[in-house]
Design a protein that fits this description.
The chain is of the alpha/beta class. It contains 28 helices and 20 strands. The protein has five domains: 103 residues, no CATH class; 245 residues, Rossmann fold; 139 residues; 85 residues, no CATH class; 94 residues, no CATH class. The strands form five sheets. The protein has a nine-stranded mixed beta sheet, with helices on both faces. Strands 11-10-9-20 form a four-stranded antiparallel beta sheet. It has a three-stranded antiparallel beta sheet with strand order 8-7-12. Helix 8 crosses helix 9, helix 8 runs antiparallel to helix 15 and helix 9 crosses helix 10. It is elongated, with a radius of gyration of 38 Å.
Length: 805
Amino acid sequence: MVSETVKEKKKRNSLIGYLIVGTIGYIYIIIVALHYLAIRNIYKRMPMGEALNNAFSYVFIHPFEIFGNVSGKDILMIVILSVLGLCFAGMYYTTHLLKKHDNPDTVNGDAHWMKLKEYKEYCMKRCSPFGEESINGYDNVILSKEMRLSMDGIKCKRNCNTLAIGGSGSGKSRNFAAPNILSANCCNIITDPSGELYRDYAQYLADMGYEVKVFNLTNVYQGCRYNPFHYIVEEKDVFIITNTIMENTTPPEQKGGDPFWPKAETLLISALMLYLWHTQPKEAQTFSNLLFLISCAEIDENNSSKKSVLDQMFENLEKDDPENLAVKQYKGFKLGAGKTLKSILISVKARLQIFELSDIKYLTSTDNLDLDKFADTRQILFVIIPTADDTFNFVVSMLYTQLFMSLYRYCETRSFYGWQCKIRNGITLKVGQAANKDDSERAKAEIERFVSEIRKGIHVKYDNDRHLYKVFTTSTNELVGWRGSVKLRDEFIKDLARIKIEPVGESCPNHVRLLGDEFANMSAIPNLDKRLSTVRKYNISMFIILQAITQLQKMYKDDWNTIAGNCDVKLFLGSSDNETIKWLCETGGKKTTRVQNLNFNGKQGESFGINLSSYDLITPDLLSMMKDDECLVLVRAERPYYGEKYDVKMHPMYEYAKTRRGMYEIKPPEEVGEIISNIPFHERLNLTDGYENLDRVRQERRKKLFKSENAAGKDESISNAEAGNKERERIKEQRKQREEEEDAINQQQMDAVADMLTTAVKGKNKEKLTPKEIADMDDTAIQEAIESRINIEPYPMDEWVYMMT
């Protein structure tokens, strides 16, 4: 189906064509009439038909040889007739407009598709650059081939919260999520169930100057780690996290039941979290330690007054701080009887048992996500979650909840008095946070110093590992930014010549977008309806991408309509879900139509009448039969748009991003190595010769293997001696084979490390270092050898000075 704006363009072009043809025809008729009058003046007795025939002939032979034979009266008559004709045409047009203005066809509803004039007005009001009909602004959200929406909520007076609905294969990622990721115009937190978006665009985003992070619940060892305790700033944060856990770990069939048990569990969990937060160092504030505290709580069903180790810990805290909130919460929990307390304790243990898994222990034992930095640094976070298992998804809900808390706290306490430096397209390079007016001067001075260092000179280093050109200040060697190609690097350096300093204001310096692809795969985010109603003023937005509206109704039973209402944009990409189609049809409005009635009565004959009725502009047939390349866009207080989807291949950066697909390698964070952090650096290289510690570890592992296998063989021999002997022989053979494979792998690791260090120290194609030579090298020498692989490329200063001027 062709969009209404395209139809309007065609209609306008047709009208112009009719006007041109009509004008030419009118001039032709006037010339023919003048020829006819001239012939009649010369040959007065010539019959009218013959004179008219000659006039048509002379028009093409002698078109302008008429003026000497035409009288002034004839010309005056033609002028009068022309004026009368124009008057009649004007009266007809005016009457037509009046009828259109007071059209009975709109009394039952005036819904219609967006017309060309309305589309142009929309572009000028809602899209960047404002005041122009262009939609090519840097900070626009891509909705369809022809529809955009500026992320500047103050100017366009709309929030960018978008509810996108499309069935499987409708192009939610390809036609909506991916184009907006390619625009690279904001900080994104991307929920990526399949990991496809990360694979395709992580390296591209790194090339565009983003710090790319991954939170991977599919493989926790391949990504960043997240500890909810790290973002607790005040006591109320504990209750927010506790409520998030309770909301997302309670089965749907148990919700709405007796509120006593959930409230009692909340008392205990919040008391333990507050105890850790008030009394323990940062590194000890973890959920695994919270479970340890639960194990210290022994409840005697027959004697609830019997004190456990946990009771004594809270008593000691009460002696030091009687008004501590943790003590008050724990006392509230202890009001119950012995049997009741034991049931509550078991329920809490069962609810939090997921934190006893080794993967989740590792994931939540520390934090390097740095959610606090998302407000004022250029970052991208990919949140990869399992597609078929939602066991861990409540962790994502906690992450999103604390991200909202962090962003709101930043905007409300540290941004208003802050200062920032920006380059072209509003990209923020550095932010100086400030909590008050006095601190504001310090923040401004820091930004001015940074800009001054950039203007003094810069140099470029190429990072071989990340394939990035990193730009540093020459005098202080501060990192300014990075790009992934020579072209992008040069554009970035040219933009530095136009750097400017300005206050931050009460919002995030960089627009922050939470892109929830397959949003239903996440757990519910508490108070999402309230968050969506206030995010615009903080320069935050959210994309909620679903397969059907019923998914939102299931997740937020009472609040789903409010959540949908707080999304100023609804994008429909195609679905067969009846509830979704019904809901969208109701949002499109009514259109008035005329219904012709014809009745036949045997005695009175026929009766004819016309009645006014109405029908939905958006019909179920329209949506259910939507073509693969079509979509529906609904922007608040704007006419609905029906047109083509935006194909990701149309994006100007698509081809470049395609060449970077799959290149980004997840670098395990430094904390991954903490399980062997006490082993010297040399021994971490896994070389066999000269490293007794590794040999000892390997031998212990083999002894355990021997012990378990011999035990297995022993059990077999008890039941059947002869069969057991054969089985032991088979096990020994398998053990020998495994040892040979292990030795081969170790040798390969040793060769790889030796090759790497040889290249770093001696260069390529040199004699390989021996294990003894490597063992004699200290850690500093090895580190320097590795760092020497980074090439330094100074940027020509004369060109820089020229650009600055």
